[in-house]
């Protein structure tokens, strides 16, 4: 899961505001004011220090006819909320007993999101996880990874690496393609395939280099560049770490085996 957007909002209009369903889950934490949220045939009263959790693609109406309301809004990728009863797609948790911690988490998270100083991404991720742990301990709401979406993003990442391993690829560029937090991408990719995306990328580059060493007359420097390594020395180090041989040793062994096979034929 990751934070897709974060904002502190204030609504002074008395007319109801309709929010159309989005592909992200939402958390609304009310700092002040009162009102209600309507979805389908359900109505939820909300007030100060209430947290509203809304699953993806859920339309709702925020109606605050009497007071202005101030609230935090977080949009989250890769998460689903579970409620009791299980057929509803939205729930309210009263956070008054631990409101001081909730406000601290949210205010700090928003500051990190807006300033984006060094280390802001893991900081935002850690604050989100602390917030959700706190809520799940004090309510019947459960938090689950949206495994269908994250599985699709992992498969797309793997396909992209397979087709483009010779290009310049970084963890940041892979995360940008999937719109996932890079730390979350590492987590779900490793859980799915048993290897991190960068180690998978290195493995694909080594496989490509093996083929070129065995079948082409390219120099080792040319092969390193062709399969995407930034330098020949880094290529040689990575190749030996993975195969136990230097590229030159692998080439000699492959050609000896080719000669033996030709003689036997």
List keywords for this structure.
265 residues, alpha+beta, Jelly Rolls, Arc Repressor Mutant, subunit A, 2 domains, 5-stranded antiparallel beta sheet, 4-stranded antiparallel beta sheet, 9 helices, 11 strands, elongated
Helix/strand class: alpha+beta
Unreliable residue stretches:
none
The CATH architecture of the largest domain would be Sandwich
- In whole angstroms, the N-to-C terminal distance is 57 Å
Question: Could you characterize the architecture of this molecule?
Answer:
- The protein has 265 residues and is an alpha+beta fold.
- The protein folds into two domains: 2-145, Jelly Rolls, CATH 2.60.120.810; 148-260, Orthogonal Bundle (Arc Repressor Mutant, subunit A), CATH 1.10.10.60.
- The protein contains nine helices and eleven strands.
- The protein has helices spanning 99-115, 120-137, 147-164, 171-178, 182-193, 197-215, 220-226, 232-243, 247-264; strands at residues 2-11, 17-19, 25-32, 35-39, 42-46, 50-54, 60-63, 69-77, 79-82, 90-94, 142-145.
- It has a five-stranded antiparallel beta sheet, covered by helices on one side.
- Strand 4 (35-39) and strand 5 form a beta hairpin.
- The longest helix has 19 residues, at 197-215.
- The N and C termini lie far apart (57 Å).
- The model has no long low-confidence stretch (mean pLDDT 86).
